[in-house]
Amino acid sequence: MFCSKCGANVTEGAAFCAACGQPVPGYSIGQPSPTVALDSGANPAAAGIPAAAYVPPPTQTWQAPAAVPPPPTVGYAGFWLRFVAVIIDFIVIYAVRAILFKPFGIGMGMGIGVFHGRQPRDFAEIAPMLGMLIRVAIISAIMQWLYFSLMESSVWQATLGKKALGLTVTDLEGRRIGFGRATGRYFAKILSSLTLFIGYMMAGFTEKKQALHDIIAGTLVLRKL
Fold it and tell me: What is the mean pLDDT of residues 68-84?
């Protein structure tokens, strides 16, 4: 296609001649030209648009990203905070035991009453009471294990005592621990007890306030500042 005025070659779809600015037949000077999208820095004449008729594409304004609130500040929980949390936990456990084991207590009381004023004649007479005591001890141990392991691996990441004091149990990266690690941490407390409770006291002077069972299980006890 050639310009009717100067004879120059006109780009297909252009509204004006790139050489002389003559409107292409089919368009009038008062008629708006079709919008031609050009990249930034492109030459309008290369697309057949006179400089006077070229409207640059709108510029995008920069918007600052939404502000992200800083994460809550935490620190390591020391010995005394953890000691108070344990006291609260055992008060809760004792209260639950008192309710659940009341029937066992009544049964043992009745059994002891049978021997009032005399000695049992043989082992068969005291075997039912011993069996009841063993069942109570086993149930109590399982209940205590599940309380600590389930609570510390839950979304709370804490027992009721720790929750009351703003403490959480995490791994070394500050993440929630699973039930398996919480179980390992619970049974590692046996070693903390066998060291004359020095394993517990280590939470007062180790770098990350870890007790012996925390070091074994790879856990931390954090507190909100």
Answer: 82
